Fold this sequence. Notes:
Chain A is of the alpha/beta class. Chain A has helices at residues 39-47, 80-90, 95-108, 124-134, 154-169, 204-210, 226-234, 255-265, 281-291; strands at residues 2-10, 14-23, 28-32, 54-59, 65-68, 142-146, 173-178, 189-194, 197-202, 214-218, 238-244, 247-252, 274-277. In chain B, the strands form two sheets. Chain B has a six-stranded mixed β-sheet, sandwiched between helices. In chain B, helix 8 (213-224) crosses helix 9.
Amino acid sequence: MIQLKNVSFSFDKPLFQQLNLTFSAKRIYGIVGADGSGKSTFLRLLIGIYRPTEGKIERSDQLLYGFVSENMGLYEEMNVMENLLFFGQLYGLSKEESRKRSEELLAWVKLEPFATRPAGKLSGGMKRKLAVIRAIVHQPHCLILDEPTYGVDPVARQEIWALIKKIHQQGTTILVSTQYLNEIAYCDEVLFFHQGKLLTKAPPAELMEQFPYRVLSLSEEKRLQLKDLKQLRQMEGVLDAYFRGTELILLCEDPQAVKRAYEKERTDLQASDWIEIEPSYEEIFVSLMKRGGGNLGD
Amino acid sequence: MIELDSLAKRFGSFWAVDHVSLSVGKGEIYGLLGANGAGKTTLIRMICGVLTPTAGKGQVLGLDLRREQLKIRQQIGYMSQKFSLYRDLTVEENLLFYARIYGVDRPKERIASLIDQFSLHQVKKQLVSALGTGVRQRVAFGCALVHQPALLILDEATSGADLFTRRLFWEHLYQLAEKGTTILVTTHYMDEAERCHRIALLNRGKLIAEGKVSELKKGVQKENREKSSLEDVFFYYMNKKREA
């Protein structure tokens, strides 16, 4: 559906280099990375707001997009229905079609009672939902959402994802960027960006399977201190160590070697104090970043 | 450090905080997790001594929530999402201003140490308005700590910060906690809540679950017979409450 062929892009500095990527129809793609990692630029490149410095982007014929930017761009003085109708007509729907479609979409997100409320007076979560349905009044093949869950509470976040899945079920391809790593689980494929580089593009399950490290958690009774943590980070074969509440999480290549080496430092620790746990997406991201030559910003 | 006994706040006929009891010990990082309107901010405002409870009682740092509000305000550190920095003052001036407000002994020495701790050397002479969000956050953090408070309250202080900024920020928090500072955090991010030593889930003003994240997860796992994320835990308790 969308194909990037040897695409490079520079802004103030070179961002993406020699990207060869394919986006297929009817999948959900998650675009993940911190602020300034290049997520938004990448999305803008895909929909043609920016043009590649080199290479080309091929799109299937008559591909219709819907796009919601991070700040949504709602007309705050217009009411909810007017926002939808206005977009419907921009996209060339007749007044009648436009109204019918708007009513249908309002029902999807249960915003009918707010149809006459100015968009500016909606809650943060409602605004996000309105922005998303407004981008699909013309039934696009591909919907691109730039951080649709940014800054909203957990309940609204869940509702927005329910809406995204519903749109996907109607046969729409979704590209969605996020900073929240747990949202990766909802995607068919994930693209990790860091400091303007694409680190990987793969299905989440594949990332889990191919994760080359082991994750250990130290039992919470053996409270370690920050100085221990820093010492652990310096050890050979340790990729990362950090506190998560009362747990200490350690990323390493060889758990046995680390345990043996650390026992010499802390004689009160036994092998059984460590348990091996499954990696979370945070650990996967950290490992990809370190291998990609990036740093954590510290 | 914080002891709340059936604390409540009513606005008209609406109980924003509906008889909440909890206790937070010295050096503990305690998280309040809830959706918008769950009562987090109202609860925090009572703990800070800026809002008088309708019912119930409580102590903060051994001071009474009703009778000693001013003393409480002087002794805690507070940082919100909005940062409350003076944009047309420099970094150093902001720190000095807060040091004077709180009556810090030898303010110059104190702020020099904060500038060190938060790597603010290069920007100390710059106006706050010229700084990026990440740096501004470190300055606000410094201001909240200028009087070395025994209790630090962070009201969605890191929302909007990205994963890596949050990671660094949390290392500072663990360090403070190790030295005995008690920290109360409100958040609606699961990854942040997971970093607290203990959390409370709030819904419609009520405390609906409390404990270590690992224990809460285990509890829900038993019921659902599936591996549970903190998000699953959150919705499990929210829905359970609705059914009851």
